[in-house]
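tmp note - Zeaxanthin epoxidase
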Amino acid sequence: MAFRGLAEYADGQPFEPKVNYIYGRGVRAGFVPVSPTKVYWFICFNRPDPGPKITDPAALKSEELELVRGWPSDLLAVMRSTPEGTVWDNAAVCAARDGVVIPRLVRLGPFLEHTNFECDLLEPALQSP
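out:
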């Protein structure tokens, strides 16, 4: 199972351009800046049964925060900066991830290599005229 979201920071997000991973028992989470004002995050977790689909945004936010209670404050801050009703779970996520999020990550650097090390851009940055 998975939850994913896109946090919004109107005045600019505070994170370095790198992927941040956190691992726990049966749960892993992470976040990465995808623009100057947006940060993509995810939580993947094991569950024997998917259970009923949650459609209430407040209940969804409560469940995702419960999964990572006590985890690093940066992750929790990113999750809390996600507008209610914009958290994805499962099927719709794959299309958004593959069509929007991953292409943006590739432009930022080799983030898909599961590292937190310094890295160069995969392609030269476009110069403004």
